Amino acid sequence: MNQSYVFIETETAVNIKTVIEDTILELGLHRMPQADEIGGYDWMARRGKYQGSLVKRLNKWIKTELKSNKEVDAAKFGSRAGLFIAPEGTKLRLSETFDWEAGDFGDESSCFWKSASLAKDVMKDYKVRAVQAFTKYQLTGEWMGVGRCWMYPIHERDSFQSYGPLPENYRKDGYLLFNAYGKNLWWFANFIDRLISVNTKQGVDFESYGVMYINNDQAIGINLPTQIYKVVSKMGEDTQYCERCDQWRRDSKFYTTNYGDSYCQECRRTELRQR
Question: At the N or C end, where does the chain have fewer CB atoms within 10 A?
């Protein structure tokens, strides 16, 4: 199987401005520091008036520039920032095999490893790939899974709903990221952006069918025209849920009973034999 690995060797802060903005607003302060006012948005700064950790620099800026005694809570800020920061040694793997155990990438609650496991077969047919995030465990030096999301290539068969007309030369060769676990979906988008310098990143509504459950019907589009605000995919349209065997089925005839229940062909035959 074709597997590709991507490494980032140094600590990388991505979209950290979002964390700072949320923190400043939560403190009831209404001015966002510019990068040069706090020694940059990097996690650590070693030179200049503002140096040390970002939290330390923020608190010094709040005290000296805003004349306020309010302080950023380091633990809370660190927890928020963890959604957006790729630590040293973080790597991504783009995988076309979905053979890991539930929880290996923070995805123990994913229904795709439980009642909706058929979704993995559907995604393979649509060339969906898993984007897996790893971090090196310092005590052992081993790479540990810390998060994953799905990357879906856009095809002509997908339906786009947009604010206005799409460019005539648009080839629909972008991607959608969806269903992130362990890490925030924007964490993956920003990480990928640093690796391949994507043209656009934007949140879009994403709908599919049947077994293909899309968390919150939300995705992040990569290299899509900014006019697009919704994508409707045919993924899962050939799947249906059987209320008798409690399973998602594919490529099976379904029957509606007199009570309005939906049965797959196998369960329908079983019911008729038991009459």
Answer: C
Contact 255, 240 (CB under 8 A): no
Q: Give pTM, 2 decimals.
A: 0.65
Neighbours of 1 (CB within 10 A): 6
**131 touches 188 (CB < 8 A):** yes
Tell me phi and psi for residue 36, to 5 degrees: -75, -10
Residue-by-residue DSSP string for 123-136: HHHTT-EEEEEEEE
Does residue 95 share a domain with residue 82? Answer: no
Distance CA 240, CA 164 (A): 34
Query: CA 207, 212, 217, 218: dihedral to nearest 10 degrees?
Result: -100
- pLDDT on residue 151: 94
Which H or E run contains 163? none
Would you say 86 and 42 are in contact if contact means Cβ atoms under 8 Å apart?
Answer: no
The residue with tokens 């070693």 is 46
Domain carrying residue 244: 239-273
Per-residue pLDDT for 8 more than 80?
A: no
- In percent, how much of the chain has pLDDT > 70? 75
Question: What DSSP designation does 230 have?
Answer: E
- At 79, the pLDDT band (50, 70, 90 cuts) reads low
Q: Averaging pLDDT over each range in 11-15, 19-23, 78-82, 262-266, which range is the top one?
A: 19-23
- Domain membership of residue 4 (yes or no) is no
If asked whether residues 105 and 59 sit together in one domain, one would say no
